[in-house]
Structure formats: C-alpha cells, structure tokens
Amino acid sequence: MAHSNFDAAELAKFQQLAERWWDPQSEFRPLHEINPLRLQWIDEAVSLAGKRVLDVGCGGGILAESMARRGADVLGIDLADKLLQVATLHARKTGASVAYRHVSAEELAAEQPGSYDVVTCMEMLEHVPDPRQVIEACARLVKPGGWVFFSTINRTPFAWLIAVFGAERVLRLLPVGTHDWRKFIRPHELTAHAHGAGLVLQDARGLGYNPLARRFRLHRALRVGYLLAMKKNKKEGG
After folding, report:
1. Tens of pLDDT along 76-99?
2. pTM (2 decimals)?
3. CA–CA separation, 238 vs 146, rounded Å?
4. Are the C-beta atoms of residues 84 and 102 closer than 8 Å to each other?
5. What is the rounded distance in angstroms from the CA atom of residue 48 to the CA atom of residue 55?
6. Per the annotation, where are the binding residues for S-adenosyl-L-methionine?
7. Over the stretch 180-215, which tens digit does the pLDDT of each residue have?
8. 102 vs 80, 108, 193, CA distance in Å?
9. Element at 188 (helix H, strand E)
10. How many other C-beta atoms can be found within 10 angstroms of the C-beta atom of residue 148?
11. Which residue in 159, 208, 203 sits closest to 185, CA to CA?
C-alpha cells in the first residue's frame, strides 16, 4: 500500500462486520438513525443536487447513497475493500448512482486537487493515526469556495461516559471496542487543523441521544459527538 495513515486493527474490525452494514438492526443501527439528520444538515447548507461530492471514509455507503439520491454526483472512498464491495453491491441493488474507489484521501488529493464542490468525512477521523493528514487532504480536494463537513467525537470525560461506556457497554448501541477515547478530537483541535489548511468554520452542531425515546438529534452542545461545516477560502480575486 502506498498509503500509510491507517490503523490495520481498525480496518480489520470494520471489515469483519461488513456484511451487516446495511442491516438497520445490526451494530450499525446508530449510523442508519443519524444519517437522515446529517444528510438534511448538509443538504440545507449546500443544496446537494448537481454538486460533485466526495465521501471520505464512506464505509458501506450509507451517507454516499443518500447524497446521490438527493441528486449529487458522489464518489465514496475507503481503505476497507470489503466495505466497498458491500457498498457497490448495495448501490447496484437499489439503483443508486454512486461510484466507489479503494484509495486514501491523501492519495486522491495528490491526484485530484480542487475537484469537488463538497467533501464529507463523517465518523472517520477518530479511527486514523493522524487525523490532521486527512483534514488537510479534504481541504486540498475541495474547490475554492467549496464545503467540507466533518463529524467526530469530543475528547472529554463526559464523551467517554456517553460514547464509550454508555453506548458500548450499557446501551449496546455499538460493539465494545468500537472507539478508543484517546483518539477522540476536541473541536478546537479539529478547527485549528482545518483553519491551517484554509478552511473556515461556518456551523457547528452537537449530536445527542435520548435513550428513553431511542432517538438522535442535533443541538448546539458539542460535549460528545459533533459535526462541523467548513468552507474553503477562495483564491484572491476569486
């Protein structure tokens, strides 16, 4: 592999669960439930129809397919080949117009800089050794004036209590070991890396979960999961 910014154990963990990716009652139920929220938030910001979109760390294609159904021209990329196979087969079955590639964001940024209107990188940064490399690659891939959307988990004791202990060990929303609290990223860290790469924060939302109603929602508190919308600086005179 030419790419190096990946964790083999993390990839193997998701590869083993690939066949259950599209089962809304499986370990990936939270992804299915939060997807309408993040999709609507993205679409309201950029109006996806007609946009060229890149989904970095697309997994089995839940977000990629939903953006394609909103009229976007979508490419999903991931380093987990089994997940890409699942994504491709599901797109064929549903007729979704979305393409997939086994390539890293860093490699694609060297190949196709400034090629996308929108770049999404959701629930992925906390699973790579060096998130800054991915953030910088996303910034290189988007056109000047284009949008980049990130989502990840805050590195706070409360986030460990909710996202690790609560979600994995108590509510069993996720398999035990899905997340490593040490890899979580504080919002100001992500924003600083993004700003250094030419991205400017436009909006921030927190992701909350009501265990009684069993529903996710977006709000303004960033203590646990959070989503950031960023825009790339236009070139001078652009």
Report:
1. 999 999 999 999 999 999 999 999
2. 0.90
3. 12
4. yes
5. 13
6. 38, 57, 78, 122
7. 878 899 999 999 999 999 999 999 999 988 877 779
8. 7, 10, 25
9. helix 187-196
10. 26
11. 159
Query: Helix, strand, or coil here: 190?
Result: helix
Q: Give the burial class of 175: count Cβ atoms within 10 A of its Cβ; 0-12 exposed, 13-18 middle, 19 or more buried.
A: middle
Length of the chain: 238
> What pLDDT sits at residue 171?
65
Annotated binding site: 38, 57, 78, 122
One-letter amino acid identity for 49?
A: A
pLDDT averaged over the chain? Answer: 90
For residue 218, what is the DSSP state?
Answer: E
* H or E element in which residue 37 lies: helix 29-46
Q: Print the SS3 string covering 97-154.
A: CEEEEECCHHHHHHHCCCCEEEEEEECCHHHCCCHHHHHHHHHHHEEEEEEEEEEEEC
Full strand arrangement of the beta sheet holding 215-219: 98-102, 73-78, 52-56, 116-122, 142-153, 225-232, 199-210, 215-219
| Domain boundaries defined on the chain | 8-232
* Distance between CA atoms of residues 179 and 196, nearest Å: 27
Mean pLDDT, residues 158-180: 72
Burial 102-116 (b: 16+ CB within 10 A, else e): ebbbbbbbeeeeebb
What's the one-letter identity of residue 10? Answer: E
Fold held by 8-232: Rossmann fold (3.40.50)
Nearest Cα neighbor of 44 from 203, 189, 190 is 203
